[in-house]
Structures are given as structure tokens and as C-alpha cells.
């Protein structure tokens, strides 16, 4: 029995049609087709009767154009020209990391305190470029969308991190940072109660900040202290929301789709992610193996095609036929390589359901292309 036969098929339509499924998370390393997969899942779900929103992290305009939208931003926009006869709808949005962070601040502090935070140079850096902020804010936005109860299915395209594991780790890292001892210490004098206690605390605080000033510089340290003091009423909230995010992701209403391409690095990341989801008790739906080269194996072999091309080239006058034979040889070789790489993953994870999506001849350009990818995902 081959590895392909041992791997169960990922029944995508069953997951999309199951009204108990409220969140689908597409994850994996960068450049494997997560964004297109998320859009195709969202479109197929909507046209099968689900009220769906796709949250993408992809900054490229290509996705917006393929969905028939002029642009995507932090506000969900309805996708036009989809089949709504089954009662569904499709909205799409692109995460604005800084705007989402601003919304968190506005929701958990006073307007005056929010203005102080927004004006702070340290906050401006933290909210726009701090490592892990994008992943954390993607989950913040997911929580906001789920609480609105406007959609019965949310499809999340996770950030294109260097490592797919960053997506699961970032909320805890950022929450721990903002709620950690060092940050609390930097805001300590503002929190210390009682005159005697403040005097004692200030003495120790001065020693620590004196050392930090030498490392960070006085101006940056003052920005951090000002930010922390302005953020005082929000402490604990970041960690609490990170924990709620983890709880949400572990519920049966969530389905993780690990997306990979037949490349060693992408499949290695997919393997790590499958193991991590299992270790954390998160609901894995299965693997989407994208961009597969397909050859049925019943035609001309790679060796025969190359030999035939060489004979035609020697004879002369058959350039087109020779080129087609070489193209066929390349496709047969690519298909064999893809099968071999896939079998290595399946051997390590024989129980993981798999959806195989063959490579397209061109990029996804419009709604019909997105719909076609949805058909390929389901084997339709």
C-alpha cells in the first residue's frame, strides 16, 4: 500500500458545511499559498451558505483585485459578484497592525490616557515594528470579529512569519513582555503606594534605571517609562487576552489547516506545526499540499522524452516538438520529486488528512480563479 493511499483525504466541504465550525486558521511558512487558500475556503464557504469573513495578513494588492475589490483594509468589505443563492455572504479585510493596537488601547483606557500612549515614541515603535506584534494583533482582530457575531465563519490567513511556530508563540511573548517584571519595574514609582514605601522603592529603582540608561540611553528609557505609566490601567489585559486566544484556538469550533508546498523547508515547517498543534491540544483539520506537479505515469517517461527531444534536435526542423518533449520531461521529474517529498511527510504523519492541490498554469487573478482553487481543494 502506498503512502498516498494510507493518508486519509481532507474533506474540506464537510468542514465548511459543519455549522459548528466557526474559525478556520490557515497556517504554515511563507510563500506556500496560505492567502490564496484562505480566500478560496472563504469563497467556497460563502457560496455554500455560510456568512463568512476572511482576515488576511497579506499586504499584496493581488488578493483584493482577485476578489473584485479596489483595496482591503482594517474594515471588512463585502465581496461582490458571488453566488448568494444558498444564503451566504463573503466579506474580506486586511489586518492593519497599528490600527488594531490602537483599538485595543482605546477599548481599555480613557481618551486622555489613550492620547498620551499614541503620542509616545516607544508605543509608536512597539505598535508598528516590534517582533511578534503582527501575530498578536491578528489574534486580537480574530477575537474582535468573533465577539461581533456578524459572521458564522471566520477564515484567518496567518502572518508570513520566518517560522510558522511564531504564530502560536507571539501572543504569549508579547503578553509576557508587556506584563513582565521589567516593564512593571519601569512603571514602579507611579504605582508604589505609601510615602515610606515609595522612598524605599525609588532607591532600588534608581540603581536599576541608572544601569539601563547606560545600555538603552536616557531618552529611550524615559519614553519607555512614560509609556508604561500611561499604560498602567491596561496591565494584565494583554496576558489575559493571550490566554483567551489560546482557549479560543483550542475549542472544537476551530479548525487548523496547515498549508505547505512540496519543498523541503515548507514541509519541515508543516511537520513542526502539526507536532506543535498536537502537543498543544489544538484541533488540526489536516494538510493542504499546494502546487503539486501531476503526472499519471502512464505516458512517456522522463528518459524517453529526453531521448526523443535529442533525436529531434539532431534531425533539425522539429524545434517545437522537441521543446514539448523537454517540457514533458521536466513535468514528470517535478511530479516524481513532489511525490517523494510528500511521502516523507506522510510517513511521519500517516494519520493527518491531506488535500492535494495541483500547480496552476498561472497566478490567481480573479474571482473565477479563486473559485477554481476551491474546487481543487475539495477534489471537485
From TrEMBL:
Domain ArsA/GET3 Anion-transporting ATPase-like: 22-292
InterPro entries cross-referenced by the UniProt entry: ArsA/GET3_ATPase-like, ATPase_ArsA/GET3, P-loop_NTPase
GO MF annotation terms: ATP binding; ATP hydrolysis activity
Superkingdom of origin: Bacteria
Pfam family, one: ArsA_ATPase
Protein name: ArsA family ATPase
